[in-house]
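Key result, reporting period 2: structure in, sequence out.
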């Protein structure tokens, strides 16, 4: 009898999780298409065929639902960073690999990237959901992976000694964000000199790597 009771409970939990994912799928399409501000909880409830009161049983507010989607993107980004950093042979190559992971996430998952940036824009009070906590944890772990590469790089001689790993990780993240989101007037200036935005990104990534390396790094081969 106990086994039957547990099985029914597990089945209900599974159904609840499936419905939760269905809500996230529907909200994701709306947020991807129109952004955070232009989507209401009423529209999301309509899209999934439930009333708003029922929707609030799954997500306490729009912020919580938004961060459930951001979590999906951050999981992908974290996986890319981990995979590329683990494959890199030396510490300085791990730093370059982290830049490549960021660029791949930006290019292959632009909607998740935009939502991730928006989530970190400062407009949200820290949501208390498990999804928001996981976003913070995985984001922190990405910086930790980069920081560990700096520490081992200073030890093995491929990265200049005396650098603060946290400062380096944030510097690389901020610089990468800046070059990817280059203002259009700068993109136009580059184009007038025959330099594409992609070429500028590649050159900047090499400059960032060289700025912390103990010796000039050879250009990355294709």
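The corresponding designed sequence is given below.
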């Amino acid at each position: 009898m106990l086994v039957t009771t547990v099985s029914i409970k597990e089945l209900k939990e599974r159904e609840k999780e499936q419905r939760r994912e269905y809500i996230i799928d529907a909200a994701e399409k709306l947020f991807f298409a129109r952004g955070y501000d232009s989507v209401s909880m009423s529209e999301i409830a309509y899209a999934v065929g439930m009333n708003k009161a029922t929707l609030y049983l799954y997500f306490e507010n729009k912020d919580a639902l938004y961060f459930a989607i951001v979590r999906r993107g951050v999981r992908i980004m974290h996986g890319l960073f981990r995979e590329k950093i683990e494959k890199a042979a030396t510490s300085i190559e791990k730093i370059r690999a982290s830049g490549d992971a960021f660029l791949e996430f930006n290019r292959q998952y632009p909607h998740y990237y935009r939502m991730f940036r928006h989530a970190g824009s400062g407009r949200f009070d820290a949501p208390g959901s498990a999804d928001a906590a996981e976003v913070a944890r995985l984001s922190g772990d990405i910086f930790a992976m980069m920081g560990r590469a700096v520490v081992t790089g200073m030890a093995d001689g491929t990265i200049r000694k005396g650098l603060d790993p946290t400062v380096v990780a944030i510097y690389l993240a901020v610089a990468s964000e800046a070059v990817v989101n280059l203002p259009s007037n700068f993109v136009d200036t580059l184009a007038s000199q025959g330099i594409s935005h992609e070429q500028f990104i590649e050159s900047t990534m090499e400059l960032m790597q060289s700025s912390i390396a103990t010796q000039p790094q050879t250009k990355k081969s294709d």
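The chain has a mean pLDDT of 91. The domain at 63-212 is CATH 1.10.357.10 (Tetracycline Repressor; domain 2). This case is discussed further under Risks and Mitigation.
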